[in-house]
Structure prediction request, 217 residues.
Amino acid sequence: MRAVTAHLRDHPGFAPELLALAAVRALGPGAATWAERLRSRYPDAPADGLARLATRRFVRAAGAGGAAAAVAGLFAPLAELASVLWTHSNLVLHLAAAYGRDPAHPDRAAELLVLTQVHPDQESARAALAAARAADDPVEGTWPRAAEAAWRLAAPLTAQAGGWLALRLASRLLPGAAVLAAALGDAAAADRLAARAVAAYRPSPADPAARRAVRAS
Prediction:
């Protein structure tokens, strides 16, 4: 963690890429263990069944995290961002494991950046990750790069960011409104991310051999 923090300080413009790489290293092994344990316990369980379990788990976690972040006062957007990044990374990596992908493989970092809509496609995500890995000396003009990184990191919250003022005003009139809205909004965002990840990782119906391989794994 100290190494990641130091790299983020020196290269804030690569914050989304560095955090994606760190998430795969930190969370990938746990996701793999989760999938292996369930397959050992339920050898006939289909990949879609494991995916539904992961989705329910992390959609609930996203809602709980949003509710907790909503009571953070002026720091609510920052607290929610941290909660969203952690939960979304866990969700994507568990869904990858459910469909037979190695959640600790470096390729998952590029997929994570695309699925969370930080990058539009795999090519740009891989190029940015390669640049982040190759970055050595601290860059000049870090503040503009830091602002850019913060904006890119906040991509999962852009649909909700404009609503924070309205939530604060509503909470004055209806106690608990901000908590409820944040919980529902973050749960819905996680559910949409799960749908994108399942579509990306589920083998094509036209490829029954691939489906059997995933189930056998």
Notes: The radius of gyration is 18 Å. The longest helix spans residues 15-41. DSSP finds eleven helices and no strands in the chain.
